[in-house]
């Protein structure tokens, strides 16, 4: 058995500009791991995220650190013990799943003991802007059944009201990306409920969210930055009703599947999210999205172009990946 590992940095232009409370981007920079063995090859993509102390350079260095383990035939379990959760482990874990599927001639869902995947309806994200510009974006997306609105603090009620007016039939979820304080939450949450918002993601900073346990929740709260893996769950009780599971936080599909199962046992509602990446990032997230209450795997829709072959998006309906792409 001879295994080889290749690591690549790729840049994918974003269509227009993508803004959240932390800043603005015009391109998605991803890291891809490719593992080849006996004529088969598996790939995994990750998106380094500065919020978690990651950079492209640090993630590539972490992957390189695992080279000996991977090339000697290390398993996903060994990888989980060797690297912490995060983007680097995600790329390698997903590449190992893909490699195993291609060598076995079986899809990942079958290897993982899961039912066959079905098409998924994804949210479509509207980045932070003026209420007028967000209304224009919402009007263009008004046929989509689920819109996710990025928020940032002052002016957020005006933003959501503008989107609601422009897309009256869409379900809405909002994501503050930790931008609010407790006063803003107390002011905004009841008004957002009246506007028909279904969910609020991460209203407060993950390190300062204890106050959420003592307040009324006019609508469900979803932990994003506050939830990385199964160890996070014990800290969420009373503060959140849902969790946003992302492969780049869990460190791959292996832990993500375990977190999803544990969250459901803990009576937490499940969202599956993504960073802005290509279809190679979304393919394992699509499998994870099966049965989730909300899916937010629209990364390729935000890019100027996607890798080929990519996932097939029919409006907001995403079909399962082909084996050529992943899994």
Order of helices and strands: EEEHHHHHEEHEHEHEEEHHEHEEE
What radius of gyration results from the CA coordinates? 19 Å
Number of helices: 11
**Helical residue percent band:** 25-40%
- Characterize the biggest β-sheet: 8 strands, parallel
Number of strands: 14
With strands numbered from the N-terminus, the spatial order across the biggest sheet is: 5-6-7-8-9-10-11-12
Q: What is the averaged pLDDT score?
A: 97
Helical/strand content category = alpha/beta
From the N-terminal CA to the C-terminal CA, the straight-line distance is 21 Å
Roughly what fraction of the amino acids lie in strands? 15-25%
Description of the structure:
Helix content is 32%, strand content 24%. An 8-stranded parallel beta sheet has the order 5-6-7-8-9-10-11-12. Strands 1-2-3 form a 3-stranded antiparallel beta sheet. The chain has 327 residues and is α/β, with parallel strands linked by helices. It is globular. It has helices at 56-65, 67-71, 76-82, 87-104, 108-111, 131-140, 156-166, 182-194, 247-250, 253-265, 279-288; strands at residues 3-20, 23-37, 40-46, 120-121, 124-126, 146-150, 171-175, 197-201, 221-223, 242-245, 269-272, 294-295, 313-314, 317-318. The mean pLDDT is 97. Helix 8 links the parallel strand 7 (171-175) and strand 8 (197-201).
